[in-house]
Amino acid sequence: MPLMRRLLLTLIGLLLAGSIGWSGLQRPEEISILMPAPFADATVDQVKQFNADHSGRIVLNVIRGPRDTESISDLAISSLLLGTPPFDALLVDVTWLPKYVAADWLQPLDPWFDDADVDALVAGARLGNSVNGDLYRWPFGADVGLLYWRKDLMPEPPRTASDLIQIASRLRADGKVKEGFVWQGRQYEGLSCNFVEFLSAFGGTWLDPVTGQPELDSKAARATVHWMQQLIREGTSPLAVSNYAEPETLQAFKAGDAALMRNWPYAWAELQSDSSAVKGRVGVTTMVAEPGASPAATLGSWGFSLLRGSQHQQATAEAIRALTSSQAQRDRFLQQGYTPTEASLFEDPELLEASPVLTQLKEALAIAVPRPITPLYAQMSDLLQRQLSGVLTEKRDPDQAMEQLQGATITLLRSAGGES
Amino acid sequence: MNWLLALPALLLIALVFGWPMLRYGWLSLHASSVLTGLEPVPNQGANWARLLEDPRFWQDALQTLRFGVVSVGLEMVLAFAIALLLDQRWRGRGVVRALTLLPWALPTTMMALGWRWIFNTPYGPLEQLAQAAGLSPLNLLSNPDWTWFAAVMADVWKTTPFVTLLLLAGLQTIPDDLYSAFRLEGGKTRQAITAITLPLLTPYILISLLFRTAQAAGVFDLIQVLTGGGPAGSTESIAQYAYLNAMRFLDFGYSSTVMLAGFLLLSLVIATAALLLQMSRLLRPLKS
Amino acid sequence: MLKLSALGKRFGTRWILRDLNLEVQTGECVALLGPSGCGKSTALRLIAGLEQPDEGNIELEGRPLLGIPAERRRIGMVFQSYALFPHLSVRDNLDLGLKVRGMAPADRRERIDAVLNTIQLVNEADRRPQQLSGGQRQRVALGRALLRNPSVYLLDEPMSNLDAQLRDELRPELRRLILQGPQPVLYVTHDQQEAMALANRIAVLRNGRIEQIGTPQELYFKPETEFVAGFVGRPQINWLNQTRDTRVGIRPEHLHPDDNGCRCRVIGREWLGASQLLLLESNAGQLQMLCSADYQPTEHLGVSWSPEDEHHFDPISGQRLNPS
Question: What CATH class has A146-298+376-415?
Answer without folding.
Answer: alpha beta
